[in-house]
Amino acid sequence: MRLALPLCVPMRASLLTGRNAIANGVLGNDQWLRPDREAAGVQTWPQRLVAAGYATAAIGKMHFYPWDISEGSSARVIAEDKRHIRIQDDYYHYLQRHGHAKRHGSEHDGYFEHKGAIASKIPAEHQVDVWVADEASRFIEGYRDDRPFALMVAFPGPHDPYDPPPELAGLFDPAAMPPSIPATADSAAFGESFIAAYLRPWNGVDYTAFTEARSGRSAPITRRWWRRLTRGSGASWPRWSARAARRTRSSSSRRTTAISWATTT
Predict the structure, then answer these.
(1) Phi and psi torsions of 115, nearest 5°
(2) All structural domains of the chain with their residue ranges
(3) 55-60 β-sheet, strand order
(4) Does position 91 have pLDDT exceeding 70, yes or no?
(5) Does residue 128 contact residue 91 with C-beta atoms inside 8 Å?
(6) pLDDT tens for each residue of 113-133
(7) Nearest alpha-carbon partner for 120 in 166, 89, 84
(8) If phi over 0 gives left and psi between -120 and 50 gives alpha, with beta otherwise, what is residue 115?
């Protein structure tokens, strides 16, 4: 699907309505669909599927405004943006039950020095993407309705802060990463506003000096830092991923329409 405006919230509005940002009116991350949109003939695909006899569910990060509305889904299990640490969504309560909490990136060592790259204080088995995958598997496994269903699953993980748990942080060598995408006329035009936006308290990281040369100089320091954080830990992520996959495969015979995306903006 080609999108007129590849930003997080406009993209989601386009996916929900089948209309690009110009047509649905959502042009930035601080906007959402107009409240009288149904009177104007604009419906979301969950609304249309419910009217056609489907059950629908949305699991993970939807980035709706307000964050807990349904937008046509029969059920929601919510894990909002990783930076929305004050939102008491379903993932918040899950962490509370297991003795953990959402934390701002700045509460982790190296957050500012490494431009938002940190080792999360949340163990691998309680990471938000593991939780979203398990909740999606649980929904499919436990579904008993005679109606077909459509399940929308969205993982918050690709978004900053870039925060693998210590068990996984040492799996990648910064020196082996490909070079940055070259600058363009568009990136030069929007660079200053981007840097200013990311200096605000929600992020607080200064990307002014984020250059290829700086990355090359800091790579040895970064590697030592990762090794220090991950010393003595094991990479056990595949165990949880395999579990979710097995549960999903065991329920694949049910009539299902599954839609999944990962957020990157």
Answers:
(1) 55, 45
(2) 44-173+187-262
(3) 75-78, 55-60, 149-155, 256-262
(4) yes
(5) yes
(6) 989 989 999 999 999 999 999
(7) 166
(8) left
